[in-house]
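Task 17 of the worksheet. Students: predict the tertiary structure of the chain below and write it out as structure tokens. Keep your answer in the requested format; marks are given for formatting as well as content.
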Amino acid sequence: MNKKRIVLGFIIVVVLLCCTAFFFRNQVEDDQTVATVNGEPIRASEFMLIMNNNYVAKTYNYFSNKYGVKDYKDFWNTVYGNEKPIDYAKSLALKEWIRIKSEQILMKQYGVVSDMTYASFLNELEKENNRRKTAVANNQVIYGPVEYSEYQYFSHEFTNQVIELKKNLAKEKFKLTENELKAAYEQLKEEYFRESYDIKVEKISMKKSERSDEVMRDLHKNLQKADSIEKLKSVDKDIAVETQTLNETTAKTDYDVNPQLLTEAQKLKVGEISDIIDENNRLTIIKTIENKERGIQSYDKVKEQVQSRILDEKYEDLVQHIIKDAKVKVVDQVFNRLSVKQ
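Model answer:
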């Protein structure tokens, strides 16, 4: 009997040890390499930082919209159609990291950063958060949060580093002559550098209701027959008539609050009538009273914008070239074990 107990106990210990070994073998350590881009490693911790913050919610939305997923139990490893959520999220995160590493390689090449490792980033994050806490304790002014999260600081630093990289590239690689800038301006001016719009419209509108569609359709027909908006405002007590000006002063509100109305107004010539616009829980018809000719801004006024646009295009071409030629090696035994907490 004692022998049986000893043997049974031995078997249990062996099983437990095997289970423990299997468990730890399947855990991914933060400093393990998920992939390399031109020899530069992507560590598990930084890979998951981007995946968790940028692609978890996006993956839920994608599978909900495409496959109608509503039950998220065992979501990440369930196959829907021929797609698995964890694979979808990891592929998107890997694609972004290939771009990030490509840009970081350029940053190192052009003197923006000297150390692009994640360990160095975490060290800088700790220093910055300590500096902020000390400043607050000493009643000093700081901008931004008292303490950055990893993702906040990564986004903040990376954005600033890209700006610095573009400046360095402009000095060293993308030097633009005056003739090149003027030639670019000539190509771009019609589409990008017109003066701000200046439009005045008569507007007749009605809050959406069970009968608003029919009322506004009838009004539209009558306006097409040359009836005036002023004459038609007495047709229904719920109809509102007003004159509205759209110009540089109102631009922010126009784009934020009335984008459809603005789009219609920009299409119309003086005296023309819009289709019925469904926006902000109102049905609206507009008639253009004035639409001033939009001139083109002078080269001197928009020179910096021209330069910025050309530099952005050249920068994107350069990054895409590096991505295309990048030697990406995925460490399958690590990449395949990455997971999202349910």
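Marker's comment: The chain is about 55% helix and 10% strand. The longest helix spans residues 299-325.
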